[in-house]
TrEMBL record:
InterPro entries: 2Fe-2S-bd_N, 2Fe-2S_ferredoxin-like_sf, BFD-like_2Fe2S-bd_dom, BFD-like_2Fe2S-bd_dom_sf, FAD-dep_OxRdtase, FAD/NAD-bd_sf, FAD/NAD-binding_dom, Metab_Enz_Cyan_OpOx_G3PDH. This is FAD-dependent oxidoreductase. GO terms for molecular function: iron-sulfur cluster binding; oxidoreductase activity. It comes from the Bacteria.
Length: 973
């Protein structure tokens, strides 16, 4: 077959992936690495080879974000290393079929198995044999997973199969005999609930509703970051093994295999047997000595066939003259655009490389293999309990019973997707879980019990334990990795950047994510979270954060086009419970503190208050229950709204829209203050006042905009109505179906992941203080001041300011105040990086939408679609209907969103009042002030400035009478 890559015609064999075909043509550098929306001169190549890292994404026939390692060539493909330009002549082609007006396809099944590796196939077979209807979804082009993957079709006639190939073929044949056919190329979004599993099947989203769910999601290879590990030609051992075993393609001409464990020896032996030069085999474990004989004997007794196979690898390497350097590691890869040399060094005490004895060898491929990490993403999104796998960097695994059932009844996790223990444990546990799930449905046929599988688990675990002893190696010494080495592959973040953040006190994973974008890329933290967690542990001495980042859907990037489906517009904020998390680092009690001004709440409003009072020379203490910028503010989309949102005007508006209109003067004032704060802080808040568009599709929508603009102009907002031609000239990427818009030049966007932290740092520099992880539990008047009882001590303050956002009602109740402030969880969506499509902040006249393009290139999509509070997880979580409806509106406005993947969705917390802030001193409570607002990120500096003026001078820059609590009935109790 033929295809083209960047205009160059190339040949391929039937059944090859694009990655295999490019490697066969000697092409390792396949994609320019883009950071921050700009094109870098560095290149990336194949890395994981199993669709987890997304480093090999390419554009195929106009469809961006296609993984070269999973995309099969059928002939004639036009493959590009770059994205389309996003213009009419070079647009983003849709990634999936557009959903029809018909209801979303749903499949009801007794048992759904996610994954068709050894565990998944065995589970499906056991359940099917016991009478259950079974569906198997698998992301790869062929079943078998990493262990039982088959030979490419083009090689099956000419290459003899070995034990692994034959084993996989037998499993698949048994499935076929049982009438079960795995659906390949099925990308599972994740599980919204145990009986709601969304997948992409043949280009469209299908919802599966199983009675029992078995997760056999497998594992991906553990990261081993070293300088140069992002160079093309550096890949995991599994990626190289897939190229070599499945496709008959060499990862390079001179190959170094380095890491820990027998998989590396298998790869090296396979390459040598095929006549490929193996320049070095490097094993982190020490050379086995007589002390290893007991482990060797146990392994031989538990699995003599596997041990014989291992000895065969040794024999092949020895016969070819390839020595194994025990107790060594690869410490750097070097090259200009592609790896050309590898530096190796012996490991000293504690696993630290001995740099004085380092040496460099020429190589055009480096294969790194340090074991595997369980793919727990779907289980964690459901709220399944996890445990700790201490090996290597230390990662979460899924806690299960002896039949594979998780903490959520009816949800099973088996194989390496639960806990990495090898293919034989996986297959046996799959059999046990499948049989148990079927029996719980009352469908079990009178078949033999799983005694053989249970005995197999015992033997296989004995073998794995012995193997771990034989290959026991010291954990990676992260302190030996230089600052310039990349830690987060997707975002290009270095060890030095993350170390600096940790040393400055930003020492939790959640804070690092918000401050640096750590873990926000396409791989969704698979290759950086564990490393960063261990780095925090090493530099702070605190217990490691095992859970990693909060689970988000989709578990892998998912086509936005497949999700866009029209939904009814909601009729108001859905008030809900609020997560009461404690994710801040634990801190010691502080006893007693005296302070002039105590601000409760470390979100953006509280931080701006701390900034205002500290800059005014006042002694201010910011008190935060969790961590700074963690909850509502940290999950904010960063829009700078000046005009009324569509649901703040007309029939949808709360309190008739009067309070929201009264708050209009605060918008321009706040945007100006944000610009002043950024200048004061000396940093880029990514404030871009590029104007805001509220678009309309119908004459009724235009009439709505004209009426809204009339009200806004009365409050000083420069609102302009644009026709179709004017709108098209201003924003050509917007849909041609839009007939006009309202334009407000004062609107824009800000980066909430930067602005809050920089403002906080400026407040501290001006003398402000802060206490994180400090929960206020009581407030009472005592001796002419306020006494705050907290989880860490007592605080006496002359002035207390309630800036707790969605939790302001809870704080107000402590002083007998009934604040009409509610929380309403709302969801947001972000896409992968896109070409420049728009500069404005975009909203919709008739529908809920907030849309903008970030400086990174990703599109951020919101608009107050509701989320839900999951009590068992104590998290706000997204709702499928809201995601679908939000994306449907977004794609009607910007059609090329259909050519992008959704990278993640999340639920933030909105402050729901009546459309206006609550400011000022509480009646009858001298020295107790409220500073709470909707549209909090935009208005934070404005309400903070007004509150500071009220406290210090009693007069304000703007009239605050519309924002006093006295406007509510029953404000005093």
């Amino acid at each position: 077959m033929t295809f083209s890559f960047d205009g160059r015609p190339l040949k391929a064999l039937p059944g090859e992936t694009i990655a295999a075909a490019l490697a066969a043509n000697g092409i390792a550098a396949i994609r320019r690495f883009d950071v921050g929306g700009s094109e870098d001169e560095s290149w990336r190549g194949l890395y994981c080879g199993m669709g987890a890292c997304y480093d090999c994404v390419l554009t195929v026939d106009g469809r961006a974000g296609q993984r070269a390692c999973l995309t099969k060539i059928t002939g004639g493909e036009v493959v590009r290393s770059s994205q389309p330009a996003g213009t009419r002549a070079d647009h983003l082609a849709p990634l999936a079929d557009k959903p029809q007006d018909a209801p979303r396809p749903e499949v009801t099944v007794d048992i759904l198995v996610v994954g068709a590796g050894p565990a998944g196939m065995a589970a499906a077979l056991a359940a099917g044999r016991r009478g259950a209807t079974v569906a198997v979804l698998d992301e790869r082009p062929e079943p078998g997973g990493q262990y039982d993957k088959p030979l490419a079709p083009s090689l099956r006639a000419e290459r003899p199969t070995d034990r692994q190939f034959r084993h996989g073929a037998r499993l698949l044949a048994r499935l076929a005999a049982a009438g079960i056919t795995p659906l390949q190329g099925a990308l599972v979004w994740g599980a919204i609930r145990p009986d709601e599993v969304l997948a992409l099947i043949d280009g469209r989203a299908v919802l599966y509703r199983p009675r029992k769910l078995i997760l056999a999601t497998g594992a991906y290879e553990r990261p081993y970051p070293i300088p140069g590990w992002t160079l093309p030609g550096v890949m995991t051992t599994g990626a190289a093994q897939t190229l070599s075993r499945a496709y008959g393609v060499s990862p390079g001409r001179r190959v170094v295999v380095a890491g820990n464990g027998p998989l590396n020896l298998q790869l090296a032996a396979d390459l040598v047997a095929r006549g490929i030069t193996v320049a070095g085999v490097v094993e982190a474990a020490a050379r086995p000595s007589f002390a290893a004989l007991p482990s060797l004997a146990k392994a031989m007794l538990a699995a003599p066939d596997l041990m014989a196979e291992g000895l065969k690898y040794y024999a092949i390497l020895a016969k070819s003259g390839v020595a194994i350097d025990w107790g060594h590691a690869a410490i750097a890869a070097k090259g200009d655009g592609q790896v050309s040399a590898v530096t190796l060094a012996p490991l000293g005490a504690g696993g630290r490389p001995d740099a004085a004895k380092a040496y460099t060898i020429d190589a055009d491929a480096l294969c790194l293999g340090y074991g595997f990490v369980a793919s727990t993403e779907i289980a964690r999104a459901l709220g399944c309990q996890t445990a700790f796998d201490p090996r290597h960097l230390g990662t979460p695994c899924v806690a299960t019973s002896d039949v594979g059932e998780t903490s959520i009844p009816g949800v099973y996790a088996v194989g390496d997707g639960a806990f990495v223990a090898g293919a034989r444990v996986a297959e046996c546990m799959g059999t046990i879980a499948g049989a148990h799930a079927a029996s719980r449905l009352g469908l079990a046929r009178p078949l033999p019990d799983c005694g053989r599988a249970r005995r197999g688990v015992t033997r296989a675990r004995h073998f794995q334990h012995a193997l771990q002893n034989l290959f026991a190696a010291p954990p990676a010494d992260l302190s030996a990795i230089p600052d310039e080495a990349i830690l987060c592959r997707c975002e290009g973040l270095t060890f030095g950047r993350i170390r600096t953040e940790i040393d400055a006190g930003w020492d939790s994973l959640g804070t690092l994510k918000r401050r640096t974008r750590l873990g926000m890329g396409r791989c969704q933290a698979r290759y950086c979270a564990a490393t960063a967690a261990r780095l925090i542990e090493a530099r702070t001495g605190r217990r490691r954060e095992i859970e990693g980042f909060a689970p988000r859907l989709p578990v892998k990037p998912f086509p936005a086009a497949a999700l866009a489906r029209e939904k009814p517009e909601w009729g108001g904020h859905q008030r809900a419970g609020s997560p009461n998390l404690a994710r801040a680092p634990s801190a010691a009690p502080f006893g007693k503190k005296d302070v002039e001004v105590a601000v409760i709440g470390g979100g953006v409003v509280g931080v701006c208050l701390a900034f205002e009072f500290a800059r005014a020379g006042r002694d201010v203490l910011l008190i935060e229950r969790d961590d700074i910028n963690l909850q509502a503010s940290g999950a904010n989309a960063g829009s700078l709204h000046v005009q009324l949102l569509s649901f703040d005007f007309g029939s949808k508006a709360e309190a008739g829209g009067g309070p929201a209109a009264a708050a209009l003067p605060l918008g321009p004032f706040a945007v100006t203050l944000w610009q002043e704060i950024a200048q004061t802080c000396g940093g880029d808040f990514e404030i871009r006042v590029t104007g805001g568009l509220m678009v309309a599709e119908t004459p009724a929508g235009m009439a709505f905009l004209e009426a809204k603009a009339k009200v806004e102009r009365r409050y000083g907002i420069a609102a302009e109505i644009l026709g179709r031609a004017e709108l098209r000239a201003l924003a050509p990427a917007l849909s041609e179906d839009l007939i006009g818009a309202e334009y407000v030049a004062q609107e824009g966007k800000i980066n909430p992941l930067t602005a809050t932290y920089r403002t906080f740092e400026a407040a501290k520099a001006a003398g402000g203080r802060a206490e994180r992880g400090t929960n206020v539990t009581a407030i009472e008047r005592s001796g002419g001041c306020w006494r705050l009882t907290t989880s860490r001590g007592t605080i006496r303050a002359g002035i207390v300011i309630n800036a707790a956002g969605p939790w302001a009602r809870e704080i107000g109740a402590m002083v007998g105040l009934d604040l009409p402030v509610y929380s309403a969880p709302l969801q947001m969506i972000t896409t992968e990086r896109a070409p420049p499509l728009m500069t404005q902040l975009v909203a919709h006249a008739d529908r809920h939408l907030s849309l903008k393009q970030l400086s990174t290139g990703g599109l951020l999509i919101g608009g107050a679609w509701p989320a839900r509070y999951a009590e068992h997880q104590r998290l706000n979580t997204t709702v499928l209907d809201s995601l679908e409806g939000n994306l449907w509106v977004a794609q009607r406005v910007v059609p090329q969103i259909a050519g992008l993947n959704v990278l993640r969705s999340w639920a933030g917390m909105n402050v729901n009042i009546d459309g206006a802030p609550i400011l000022g001193e509480a009646p009858g409570r001298s020295g107790f002030y409220n500073c709470v607002t909707s549209n909090g990120y935009t208005l934070a500096p404005a309400v903070a400035r007004l509150t500071r003026e009220l406290v210090i001078t009693g007069s304000t820059s703007l009239d605050v009478s519309p924002y006093l609590i006295s406007r509510f009935d029953g404000s005093r109790r």
